[in-house]
Amino acid sequence: MASELALEEIFSRYKADPFDYVDVHSVHTGRVTFKAAVEQEVVAPSGEWLQVPGTPLYEIDRERNPRLVGSQVNGIVAAVETQLDGSFVEAGVKLMTIKHPLKKKEIIENILKDVLFLFPAPESAKYFFAMDIQSRIDKKGARAVSVEPGDEVLTMSLMKRDTPIYYSGEGGVIYSVYFKPGVSVRQGEPLFGVCAPEKLPLIQKIITRVKAEWDSEH
Amino acid sequence: MAGDGANRPSRSELLHKLQRELEAPDLAVFGDTSPVGRYGAFVGSVIESHSHLPRAMDYARRHIAELALRGRSAASGTVILADRLSMGKGRFTRSWHAPPGGLWGCMIFADTLLPRWRGLMPLAAGVSCCQAVRERCGVEAVIRWVNDVLVEGKKLAGFLIEGYREAILGEEYALIGFGINVNNGEFAGELESSAVSLAELCGGPVDLAGLTTTFLAKLACNFGILLAEEELFLREGHFSGREGCHLLLQRWLALSDSIGKRVVYGFDVVTTPQYQAEVVGIDEYGGLQLRHGDGTLTTEYSGEIRYL
Prior knowledge:
The complex is a heterodimer of chains A (218) and B (308).
Chain A: H1 4-16, E1 19-25, E2 30-34, E3 41-42, E4 56-62, E5 65-70, E6 75-80, E7 88-89, E8 94-101, H2 104-115, E9 117-120, E10 125-129, H3 131-140, E11 146-147, E12 152-158, E13 161-166, E14 172-177, E15 184-185, E16 190-195, H4 200-213
Antiparallel strand pairs in A: 1-8, 2-4, 2-7, 3-6, 4-5, 6-8, 9-16, 10-12, 10-15, 11-14, 12-13, 14-16
Chain B: H1 11-21, H2 34-40, E1 47-50, H3 56-69, E2 79-82, E3 103-110, H4 115-118, H5 121-137, E4 142-144, E5 148-151, E6 154-165, E7 172-180, H6 191-194, H7 198-202, H8 208-236, H9 247-255, E8 262-266, E9 275-282, E10 288-291, E11 297-300, E12 304-307
Parallel strand pairs in B: 1-2
Antiparallel strand pairs in B: 2-3, 3-7, 4-5, 5-6, 6-7, 8-9, 8-12, 9-10, 10-11
């Protein structure tokens, strides 16, 4: 359980620097050409179906197949690994960092992510809760639904291949859900956060305090 | 209940047919096609035939679990056929009408593909069926992304893949369910206008055993391609098709009529259509590339489409 001291440290950190620093990595191997520079403002995908791509960040060319990669967040480009411009890189190499201003809701979610057990997406795919879990959520709400290791908790849907996903992690209630049915989630991103029963008072305290101390939306 | 095995190919028939599949002109890019044959030969390692099952996928899960209780693994490539399914289902809560006369069943695949290429597995099922009905019956079957097989706009076959992790040994399997309307002529309710059988298209009964053999041999060849291409990519960093394209994708593109079509897309397109767009291609993982009205592009890796 996060101690009071650790929480104070977390609050102080967000007070002093209410930004996320989002590292951008190469999506696969290839030759990189940067399309954004330091201090440039970038925007996230938009449109009803998020079909309008974010600001172009870099192009990566593999086997004469160039791919333009856009920003997934709003913010300012804080750093660019300019020495890699025009070079061949492996997959997962850090290319730049975007400084993203946090809203009050995002600060709460970020702090919760430090406290909750986050269950990550095993593959980039679409997810929906297993039928039993979904019916319990429909009846009582997610925060009344407990999960234990080994429970079949989700179905992963990818290219008409449905795979049951079993929960592994600390038992508790499903406190935050980070995915929407039918919307793709990238591999490694959290699908939901689980809170052990004894941590619930702490979480309520976090939410109350952020709401009180961050008086604006930004 | 065990069936009479009338539509069950023998192992030797299947391997003989697989050998002939390896002579396909597009496989010449491999030079030596024997790895494709070796990788694909697991299909039909065991073939079970039943006169009736509620659902072949459920039977496969029970079969795997019962073997695990005895400390054994299910044979990869086990094919479970049933003359009739009483509780066949499609995606979501859709039922699948599976009376006698059709080719119904599933294959157990010990899932050894790397995660990045697993998305191509459903394409292999659709390609195999489309090739088999074209070859055996001469009908102009086409594939609608992901793997629905249509003739004259009506659904001839559908495939569903379900992952299954066995609880005792922790082994991962993919259960590849298939349903092909062969000699079953009557469709209930809404299916009457949207489904079609081979018998209807050919004007008479079709040799079900022959079609089963051809379909499984094509499935063996296409799974062989999946696994051989994975090996080639890991070794040399490219695939064997034109301009480094995955050969299975090349086959899918040659059989699909989805590219260029205006479609409605949805995760569950029947109950919740999401948007309309034009199909412009598929990417290296089989994802559907769509152009929206404002010119922007998106790629979908799940869900389904209907043509407008």
